[in-house]
Amino acid sequence: MSFYRLFRDPPIEYRLLPFWFWNSDMDAEEIVYQIKEMAEKGIGGFFLCARQGLKTPYLSDEWFHYVAITIETAQKYGLEVWLYDDYPYPSGMSGGEVTLEHPDARHRQLLHHSVIVTGPQTFSYDLPWARVLSARAVPLDEADRALWSDAIDLEQAIGSVPNESVFQSTGLTTYTNKRFFTAKLQKRLVWDVPAGRWMIIIFLEKELEDFKYYGHYVDPCHREAMQTFVRTTHEQYARRFGQYFGQTIKGMFTDEVGFIGRIPWSARLPSFFREQTGYDLLENLSALLYRRGEQTAQIRYDFFQSMHLLLGAAYYEPVGDWCEQQHLQFVTEVPSMRMTTQRYSHVPGGDSAHEKLGRSLKWILDRNAYSLRADPKIASSLARQFGRERAMIECFHSVGWSMTLQDAKWMLDRLAALGINLFIFHAFFYSISGLRKHDAPPSQFLQNPYWQHFRALADYAARLGYVMCQGRADIQIAMVHPVTTFWTHMGNPFHSFQYCGDDDAEERTLERLKKDWAYLCKQLLHHQVDYDHLDPELLAEATIEDGQLVLGQACYRVLILPPMSNLEAAAWSQVKAFLHAGGTVISVGLLPYERIDRNQDIAAECLEEFGLTVSPSSDYWQELHVDGQERSWIKGTHSSYFIPCPGGAQHAYAIEPLLTLLQQSIQPVVTLEGVVGDTASLLMQQRILPDESRLLFITHQEGMDKTVRLHLAECPARQHVERLDLASGNATTMVVEKGDDGWSVVLPFAPYESYLLRFSSREAGREVEGEQLISWELAVSVQEAWKLTAQQENVVRFGAFHVALDMEQTGMQMRWHHGESAQAWPLVEAKPFINQCTDIAEQQSFPLQFHQTFGLPVDSSLVYPLRCWYQTTFRVETLPALCKLMMDEDAIGGIYMLYLNGKHIEADNFVADGRYGYRQLACEIQQFLKSGINHLVVAVEVQRGEDGVRDPLYLSGPFGVSLDAVGMATLVQAPEAEVPHSGVIQGYPYYAGTLCFTREIFIETLPQEKTFALTLQGWDNQIHDCMEVLVNGSSLGVGCWSPYRWEGDTNMLRTGNNTVEIRITNTLNAMLEGTYFDALQHQIVPIHGEAER
């Protein structure tokens, strides 16, 4: 099948894959229905994820029964099934079974305590209850320098003491009923300090406590525990569904496996460290936080590298091998020690793209710069270097319910330009009932009003995925990742290389190194110079062919060495070989000077290769200054170049000589010139197809119009340029201009617009529609009033309630169910009762109960059950013909009764209501309404902290809604006219669905052109929802993102009056959260007080 046909309708394997959250009572009929919906909307498959809210027992026979139904249904619809390896996350727990079987495998943290004391004295110091790994007292000289060789071991000076006394009124005989115990052990140091000043340094190993879901986590370096993880999860799937592996079931996803603490640690590390290095880690722990001379860098490097190797050997390698043997792809989204943590991944990945439209490209690149997970170029570089076809990003979690398809398209464009070709959407929720809707939303699934238009985004993402898998990326530059430099300055790779040491000066050193590296990377992207990150460990494994550095599918002509204090010797050997073979190496600012390989010091060789006689370190580390001097470079042997950077690379504007050297080393095929505006908001990737034609993808990531001239290095007579439309799948020929400075193409960019261009020979078989015809412009003014109607019923959201505790059970006698006396009660948001208690603890007392287990301290807790009354008020100005009370099935926890104006609303009157794509309950209550003030009351018997009114309640019906300044709603006549605008629409502040704006326009004479283009004059450019335009009842199509353009055949028009209708489909945000996104301020804003404009 031709490239063009596959581009127009990409196969399943290139389509997006969402996490499908199984988070409720699973139902076979609902599973089949949701898979059918995915298939109809162009989804390629899904990751089957057990998620919080799940009521079906995980990994039980019932669980696997539903998995079997899922596989059979997916097979029927031609969808792929991908497995997620745990419940919920991070991976490694098998739903908690692993640590039940291996209690010794619980995750532990490395803690550090230090204090300076002066002797002589007897010094006492309390420590947490944890295993002591090292305790030393180091004498300090007159200049407060540590005399490490004279340190004293203090481990024997540490013992255990209780921290709490316990009294209990009980006895073992009839002769006494009082007992004394102690509890809550801790460690204590007691030391007779000799004369002088001493620095006490103590390291402890403490179990991780109070971690999400299970209260703890597993140590992924515990080999036996990880074997149990595979046995209890992976092998269960293999026994039941192995016949589908490599066919319908494509792979296994592992998530966020790593180390939790401030300093990465495993209880298995000390023994492994000795095996790897030949010396004792515990004797040298102080070198992690204090510089102990020249050996400090070596110890720190050995520490982090040993953690890296141990994690790979215990977890990633065996799990990757298991997947390989089972014909499954091992998909990883994990924090990493270094890039090569994902060495064993078939689909390397990351976690990025969690922003709303409007963030600048600079802001986003800054935010992601240091993270091995959040920078998409880490995953795409690894995929190329390991020869993997796909590079994955898990995207969109926690963007919130205001996320639109425009937001998604904007982020997908950025990911694609950075080399990503597999998009995993977080997430499709099986249910959003109750608290489930707050699980790092949104759900982009059938619950959202825009689901009816989702096929447009699915096809767009599929075409992006397809083209980014074709041929090879034309990236000839590798930026060596300074990971080992960050390590030796105590940058924690699991937390974006945040400093985890104990020295302010060293932290500033680390920050300069990080900022300079990120500066170079970001500036290359802002100048449309593409590159790959390259881990030194992989650099050492590369081959050299025809003067190029070759790794997998990657071929590099230029290596960039950012400022680095060290480099592994094996990597340096390959740098030298590359130089001697004709490659270009550019070092910026700082050459390696620390020794991290015990048997080899590369510092002198580095200086020699780059033509230097003295180390540039003193120049680089000097205080920041700007002297206005133009920066150049020093040429060393072969094609090596060193760019001096006094005060750091960013301060020395190192990007300018770097760009010059790159342009000399690699002749660009295309360059961009700003005609209107600059090019800093553009990202670009080039790909070379097997027929040697070239793809060029350019995305504009910001919200202003721009015009760019694309200069072509050459344009042979038999070559042409065409635009491939990612939205429609069509191709059109572009106009190539010949000027004094060569061939070029003018590209006008609307806000957030992207171009996919193909450069190919005229002989190539093509299916191109030709140049676009000139259309007649039909201008429609937006600023006049439009007739307004709603396709769905309107809603009122009640998200705040006055609450009272009925401890005497007298609420009914006091007529609380009428709601008239509740205004003095504290006000709470709809959330679980225990969280409401936290919010009003200063206003409200709560009944407590006390209980004591033999020999342990007394515990206190709230007395359950508690009877609580919740009340909210609204007005009715115009009684609606119909009105329903609506709520999620799980909106109220506990036994409850509902009252409206004192009238009991019978539970039996509620029926299932699925208008928003998930199960809700609704009851007709129009007969209970009255003009004026109305009171809605909920009486709840709270039996657990998670009970209470924990989710909003709603009224729905054919009415309008007016809000006063404090958010009280009034039911009014639905407004009949409005001007389309962003923010809150008068009369529909909480509406979720499609609003229709209609008006008449007059056309005196029909145009001669065959087509017309409709433009909306005065349009609010902050509207980023899905919009369909109809003319005389015929649709011009749905615009889901910028540029919003509509064209139609002229025969749709008529002389005289013509009807224009705009249908705007929004999100669930206003209804679920009671907020809207203020695009100008880039913040979420509460709706109340904003409805009256």
UniProtKB/TrEMBL annotation:
InterPro entries: Galactose-bd-like_sf, Ulvan_degrading_GH
Pfam families: Glyco_hydro_106
Transmembrane segments: none
Protein's name in the database: Glycoside hydrolase
Source organism: Reticulibacter mediterranei
